Amino acid sequence: MLADSETLQDWRNLALKLEAEVKKVMIGQGRAIRLLNIAIFARGHVLLEGDVGVGKTTLLQSIACAIGGAYERIEGSIDLMPSDLVYYTYISEEGKPRVAPGPLLKHGDALATFFFNEVNRARPQMHSLLLRVMAERSVTAFNRQYSFPHLQVFADRNRVEKEETFEIPSAARDRFLMEVLIEAPDDPALQRELMFDPRFHDIGSLIERIDPGVVPYTELNTIAGLIQRHIHATDTLQQYALNLCRATSHPAEFNIAIDDVNIEGLILAGVSPRGMSMLLRAARVAAWLQGRDMLIPEDIHEVFTETIAHRVFFTPVYEMRRSQVAAELMKQILHQVPVP
Q: Which residues pair with 100 in a beta bridge?
């Protein structure tokens, strides 16, 4: 046990260094960086939310550099086919057709970070393949199975344009550990720095400042399991977490009220057992990054909205207002459920 504690302390130092390296590139995004760091050590996939040009791609390139391993990115489009993830065809210099591995296959088991940009521009067939890869970290092609044991998938959605887009079904979004909002900094000083400091105008040179491979990606699965075994929760804390999750299904029992919402007719389905498990998985990593081996309510609060909001399903009349209603529901749950 002592050896495990020393190992986790060494890895915590590496995890904090990873954050420091990414902050060389991304300013004003401390919370988003911490949440993605939690996801990395919880070994969960992430759906990014945010407007165009707020730095989502730069953030992921920075993280991919810091953890090492292969990085691949694909752009969602209406004509993208599932096969485009697996292989592509071309004409060789000899004028003969050739088949080459696509972005999922060409790095083999060294693929560590996969970014699906504007995932809602791709058709549902693409979503199905992506979700299988996320769930199983493998794909079948050319009569054999390819495994990606170190793979972590990130995706983002185009929130501005609605034409030729296909939203990921709510039930499918449950496969993502978190949905993380990336927003431009509000601080005028940071906005001025982003606008006028030349170092932020050349993303390639900026990312080269990151110390590559700070966190050995091939060992993340082992360390993630060690974190989950090492961080404990009291019976009281466990009951509190269960009450938070129960409130997503039965908000009226906890005196939750939202303006212009019939709380009795709001919920179609609350958080699933998988979602409850993912909440605690992320919370344990949050506690570890704070240097604790015991969960406290603040660890759950830190990740609650990002891990739970997209796992609560509303009745159709409220689904069109999901972003506003979900945010207020999460806020009210944290406020109304008694904290031990």
A: 88
Q: Are 151 and 72 in contact (CB under 8 A)?
A: no
Together in a domain, 54 and 199: yes
- How far apart CA 244 and CA 253 sit, in angstroms, is 11
Which tokens hold the place of 335? 């406020």
Interval 211-236: pLDDT, tens? 888 999 999 999 999 999 999 999 99
- Do 127 and 194 reside in the same domain of the chain? yes
Nearest residue to 282 (alpha-carbon basis) of 178, 212, 198, 169:
178
Instruction: Say if residues 215 and 278 touch (Cβ distance below 8 Å).
Output: no
Copy the structure tokens of residue 159: 């929130």
Please, which residues have CB within 8 angstroms of residue 27's CB and are 6 or more apart in sequence? 185, 190, 193, 194
One domain for residues 180 and 325? no
Which range marks the domain in which residue 129 is found?
A: 2-78+109-209
| Parallel, antiparallel or unpaired: strands 46-49 and 178-181 | parallel
Residue 88 included in any domain: no
Long-range pairs of 106-110 with CB within 8 A, sequence gap ≥ 24 = 106/72, 107/70, 107/72, 108/146, 109/147, 109/148, 109/149, 109/150, 110/69, 110/70, 110/150
| pTM greater than the 0.85 cutoff | yes
Give the pLDDT band of residue 126 (cuts 50, 70, 90): confident
Q: What is the DSSP letter of 27?
A: S
